[in-house]
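Worked example 4.2. Below are the chains of a multi-component assembly; read each line carefully before continuing.
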Amino acid sequence: MVERKTVRQQLRLLPVLPSVLLILVFLAAPILWSFHASFTNAALTGRNARNPAWTGVENYVRLLGDAAFPASVVLTVVFVVASAVVGQNMLGLLIAGLMTRARKPVAAVVGTAVVAAWVLPEIVAAFAAYAYFSKDGTLNQVLGGAGVAGADWLYAYPMVAVVLANIWRGTAFSMLVYRAALADVPQDISEAALMDGAAGWQRLVFITLPLIRSSIATNLMLVTLQTLAVFTLIWVMTAGGPSSASTTLPVLAYQEAFKFGDIGYGTAIASVLIVLGLVFGIAYVRLLRGDKR
Amino acid sequence: MTTAGRRTFEETLRRPRHGEGAWPGRHRNRGPADAALLLIGACFVLPLLWLVFGSLDAEAGYQTRLPASASLANFTAVLTPELLLRPLWNSLLLSAGTASVTLVAAVLAAYPLSRFESRFNRPFMYSILCGTCLPVTAIMVPVYGLFVQLRLLDSQLATVLFMAATALPMAIWMTKNFMDAVPVSLEEAAWVDGASGLTALRAVVLPLMRQGLGVVFIFVFIQTWGNFFVPFILLLSPSKQPASVSIFSFFGQHGAIAYGQLAAFSILYSVPVLVLYVLVARGAGGSFALSGAMKG
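Applying the procedure described above to all two chains together yields the following structure tokens:
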């Protein structure tokens, strides 16, 4: 009787199977294969494509010795910190905060403008950003109109261009998160603080920010991960160049694997990225769990 | 910072409250906030202007300027089966296929997770949540390797299944949250009447969470429609590639000359997702969709 009950309980879980299979075959298997392939000399074409040989930690040793990898890590960190942690996150909070004070129609129109850049397909957003930052693009037109000499942004300052483009592209997400969070902050608390003579920044630092801190943490985690995975924007705008001045880790992994045909080395870089993603993922889960207790 | 915040909070609660009229904020000046917002909004619109003006200008460059004479020449130039219609059809196949597979699998998975207590639930949901954090661009090199081994390269079906797998963690998470909001008592009545779990799901639960299902479907559809990197790696023959990839090839071949056509192509390709987004935002409210995704 007891046995039959557990069998029936397990049968109830049967509908989960299709999802589990899909995830195992198409997500878990590539991840495991990635760790495996990163210890071989697998190649895109040629003899090593059919019979890759086990080379141990050679790819990882090469990673550390190769000047391209540390440089790429630094660029990735700069890209994530500047465009996600500082740019999208702060600007999103600023816009959401201003929206609570501004007139409703103004907030609605500006909200639409911010969201538009986010809803567009990423390749279209990338084209628009490419045109905007190109030598005779809109940015230089505006600067020229203000009497400031422009620059060839995509060649002279590729990182500045891709960071700004990613802020433009992704701020909507942070804005939506913070709008929802600020709407939940009880009005009378900040009203009371206002009567006590708290200045605007004091209310922000001592009342509003502590109240929405779980939203801030969640948002930081998610925008960091989204930005870590950005490929299309950079690929269209600079293709990682000039030389490798804007080659972040996803671009480097792509180049090593598909341009130079070195799948083993490419998967080693991919494995580093996957581990980074998992670390952030686990931290995110712990954070949410801690919240609930 | 937390304790300081709490002390201020408690102290403020102890103070007697003044009348509403004494609160200066109610009459505060909205002008500065309006101006700052409009300035930010202008910065966000500026890069998009080129797309609109350029698409209408037969002699467009990378400059943003009002076309000397507005014409639809760019649109007619790209509106050929070869250039636009077949890629758009492929995009539709991939997106609708991915969204359907994802939705069916997510609903099936969410039902037992939402309705039956099991030791398996918590670890599963936490792994799912962890899975939503996986950077998909990071696994494209190994996925390519796996597709080569399994001879799945250039298969639209395999691409759909892969994209469904990447969308599933988020979709299961959202679907379960929407399903949790449907009261169990209604199904219990159906169970008493002898309906099986899956019949109750189909007849009672799904109609009640139609709106949530629509949000999940459109969410996955938009995400797949806009996806460039996955079909770029996994689909090789131009006849199978979606618009995101064919527009990139077009840009590579003609981007340096046919700016206006590139802009027109971009607009035609973007319109479907803009419409779908407006549908979701209008019908269900952006925060509703977000609540499905963010609720713990």
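Take a moment to check your reading of the output against the notes. Chain A has one domain: 67-292. Chain A has a mean pLDDT of 84.
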